[in-house]
Amino acid sequence: MQLLSERKGWAAVIAGLSILLSPTAGTADTHGENMNSQNESAIEGKPPLEAMLPEGYRLTLSMPGRMDDAEIVLRRFQPSDRASVDLGGEHVSFVVEQGSERLKGFTRLYGGVSDGALPTEDVARQAALGFLHRQAPDLLSNHKILWIDRHDEQVQAEGRKVTLSGMKVKFRNLDDGLYFWVILAADGSVMTFERDIHWITFPGHRGTEKWLHDSWLQQQENLVLSEFESSENRIEAVVENYFRGAFHGDRARLEGAFDPAARIVGFFGDDRADLSVADFVDLVVSQPSQASLGATMDKRILSVEVAGRIAVVKARVPVGGTVYIDLLTLHETADGWRIRHKSFDLAEASPV
């Protein structure tokens, strides 16, 4: 049996990979032409990957592939209420080389990431060079800035298409002829980084695979993305739907999280409850929702244990001024993971 406790399951997947979003380090030449930097100073400490993920994002996909001659891994994070890969939707994705975890590129596309006025060309140049100085200093040894201009991406967010804009600084590596770029969001943070991109001059198109681009992934008929989706994160997405359904009094979300034959058994103080899922949902939605009372949604998963087609999730579930501990048993069904049994008791009676 595989134990995945206190988020270690997905944290282990990304161990060792750090991304700097807001470069503040100084760089060498900033005039934007040829540069031969001799600066080999040590790279300063970088914040962990978790720091750049929006709240509630979970690892949805981790799949191997090839990028030119390199063996790579694509890792995609999405909002926790999306249990499967949502191409065209909001996401944060990384491409790293297998084994070394060397960063080949990343993108973060979600509503709000580019709100505000775009940085000027000078600010974008400085920020891009600062990012590269910390994250990919080898690219600064002999390069040329080709151009700096606005770059737009579209993403499906909250049921509608949203345009995300940034300032793209495109470079060429004069040692190997490959291209790389950094796209800066309105706040000067890095929205996208890609490196080691080769171009086919005739008929004029990118030759390197576009693992960070959903439009490219949609065209790859041989890619079966669902085979590489993380079971743990699909389970967490179901539990998050249960959390949010209970918090908002959302009948559809609650019914979607539970198997129709599920039982809810536990203790309200000295009173024992034994409910069908239908009775449980009716009870929850008949009360004023926690959201409507101005409460904070701070329910959280404490551990996940997966064994084949069954799983056990331990969760901390505050309701009003009372904190419960849930033990949820889930089964993988033809319709995906569903909660088959929920046992609960007061947190004081079940030490975390």
Q: What's a quick, concise take on this entry?
A:
The chain is α+β, with helices and mostly antiparallel strands and 352 residues long.
Structure write-up:
- The chain has 352 residues and is α+β, with helices and mostly antiparallel strands.
- It has helices at residues 8-13, 121-135, 214-219, 231-248, 251-257, 277-285; strands at 2-5, 57-67, 70-79, 91-97, 103-109, 143-157, 160-173, 179-184, 190-197, 199-200, 205-206, 258-268, 271-276, 300-307, 310-319, 322-333, 336-346.
- The strands form three sheets. Strands 2-3-4-5-9-8-7-6 form an eight-stranded antiparallel β-sheet.
- α4 packs antiparallel against α5 (251-257).
- The protein is elongated.
Poorly predicted regions: 1-48
Structural class: alpha+beta
Any idea how many domains?
A: 2
Figure out the total of helices: 6
Main sheet makeup: 8 strands, antiparallel
Query: How far is the first residue's CA from the last residue's CA?
Result: 21 Å
Rg from C-alpha positions?
A: 23 Å
Features:
eight-stranded antiparallel sheet; single chain; 352 residues; alpha+beta; Nuclear Transport Factor 2, Chain: A
Task: Give the secondary structure arrangement, pairings included.
Blueprint: E1 2-5, H1 8-13, E2 57-67, E3 70-79, E4 91-97, E5 103-109, H2 121-135, E6 143-157, E7 160-173, E8 179-184, E9 190-197, E10 199-200, E11 205-206, H3 214-219, H4 231-248, H5 251-257, E12 258-268, E13 271-276, H6 277-285, E14 300-307, E15 310-319, E16 322-333, E17 336-346
Parallel strand pairs: 12-17
Antiparallel strand pairs: 1-14, 2-3, 3-4, 4-5, 5-9, 6-7, 7-8, 8-9, 10-11, 12-13, 14-15, 15-16, 16-17
